[in-house]
Amino acid sequence: MFTVYVAVARDLEDAIVSELKGHSDVVLLGSAHDISTALRDLSQARPGALILDDAILTDASSEILAGFSNAPYPVILLAGAEGPLVAKRALAIGAKDLIDRLEWQHELFPALERVALPIAGDKREGRVISIFSSKGGVGKTMLSANLAVSLADKVHDPVVVVDLDLTFGDIAALFGTTPKATIRDLMNGPLTLQAVMASLTEVLPHVSVLAAPRTPEEVEDIRAEMLVPIFQVLRQAFHFVVVDLSPGYDQINVTTLDLSDVVLVITTPDVVTLRAVAQSLRLFRQGFHYDDKKVRLVLNRSGSKTGITVQDVAATLKQPVLYELPTEGNLPARAANQGEPLLRFDPQSSLAEAINEMASRLIQEETGRRHKRRGPRAWLESFTRRHR
Ligand SMILES: Nc1ncnc2c1ncn2[C@@H]1O[C@H](COP(=O)(O)OP(=O)(O)O)[C@@H](O)[C@H]1O
Ligand SMILES: [Mg+2]
């Protein structure tokens, strides 16, 4: 499965778009029939492939052409049989494949299968980090919001928080913002990049929120199967996708846990929470077959005088505590009342520092996740053969 962006002249746009929409293997991120719209969309998206029409490139500057050759996605160029001029442009944009404009119905899909970067296991995509607990009030939302801020600060790249605490979620409030759209707005499709981007609320530079529905009635409309394509699009557009989950194992949670790269399970140092978290960990391991790289234990409110230490927690849950977040009195609550994430409200606090440290470690795991290098330009050979 791969995502595709289509930038082709008007005469082909509708036909190609509807052909691609019919393919279950393709997630269409969007389309345009002029180069400036395409460039604007592509500055926010990283498709698995760009289908680009030579017909909209005739006036493009050499900077624009060079820009495509540095793009992190492969470009498939559609062109009429114009000979050397086309070949020159194809080389300038670093096209991975060149197909005949008139033959697109036969050649386009095979070309996509050859060059498009697949979604599954493609290290280029944003990582999905879900924050879960079997209990409410343990700090899921506090961590979701602040981890997103810290990740965005460090990677200087867009991060999104998805509020899947559908009934009670109010992530945007922690940023002092009222969302202008919610996940409910995505339920009627189509799930293009434009539609998903329009459903987000930017709460800080580089930090956006996909808000929970406004009313309990709207929660009923959220269908778990829609989450898969929504996350596919978000992964392409964001460096990290942080998800705030509700307690429990409904279909929304199970779907999200499955597609997550990392599940942070939060516990607090008290017997009731530990007992509930132990059950979740057992389910994740034995029922869902998640490994320890995916499911990681976070101890929040560490240092609370409960008589339960971090060693006790690790021993009880038979899993190491990977991240420890100190208890910070009423500071997080005060930050929330001010509508400011703790990371901004008191960046020197030990809780903010612990979250920063956690973000650094999550980012470090990523290094080495580099774009695939371009292969030899196989199309060049067949093109020169055809036009000799
Ligand atoms: N480490 C902490 N120190 C102090 N207060 C905290 C800490 N973590 C969370 N809180 C506070 O606990 C309350 C519940 O946190 P919240 O993130 O809403 O939990 P959840 O989303 O799991 O229901 C909030 O008022 C939050 O500010
Ligand atoms: Mg919450």
Describe this structure in words.
This protein is an alpha/beta fold. 41% of the residues lie in helices and 19% in strands. It has two domains: 2-120, Response regulator (Rossmann fold); 127-364, P-loop containing nucleotide triphosphate hydrolases (Rossmann fold, 3-Layer(aba) Sandwich). It has helices spanning 10-21, 35-42, 62-69, 84-92, 104-115, 140-155, 171-174, 193-198, 216-219, 227-237, 251-259, 271-287, 310-317, 331-338, 342-345, 350-364, 378-387, and strands at residues 2-7, 26-32, 49-53, 75-79, 97-100, 127-132, 159-164, 201-204, 207-210, 240-245, 262-267, 295-302, 321-326. Strands 8-9-7-10-6-11-12-13 form an eight-stranded mixed beta sheet, sandwiched between helices. The structure holds adenosine-5'-diphosphate and magnesium ion (MG). Adenosine-5'-diphosphate is lined by residues 133, 136-142, 300-301, 325, 327-328, 332-333, 336, 351.
Short descriptors:
388 residues; alpha/beta; Rossmann fold; 2 domains; 8-stranded mixed beta sheet; 5-stranded parallel beta sheet; elongated; binds adenosine-5'-diphosphate; binds magnesium ion
- The total of beta strands comes to 13
Largest sheet: 8 strands, mixed
Shape: elongated
Average pLDDT, to the nearest integer? 90
Q: What percent of residues are in strands? A: 15-25%
Structure class: alpha/beta
Give me the side-by-side strand order of the main sheet.
Answer: 8-9-7-10-6-11-12-13
The succession of helices and strands, N to C, reads EHEHEHEHEHEHEHHEEHHEHEHEHEHHHH
State the fourth-level CATH superfamily of the largest domain: P-loop containing nucleotide triphosphate hydrolases
* CATH architectural designation of the largest domain: 3-Layer(aba) Sandwich
Radius of gyration: 23 Å
Instruction: Show unreliable segments.
Output: 368-378
Please report the number of helical segments. Answer: 17
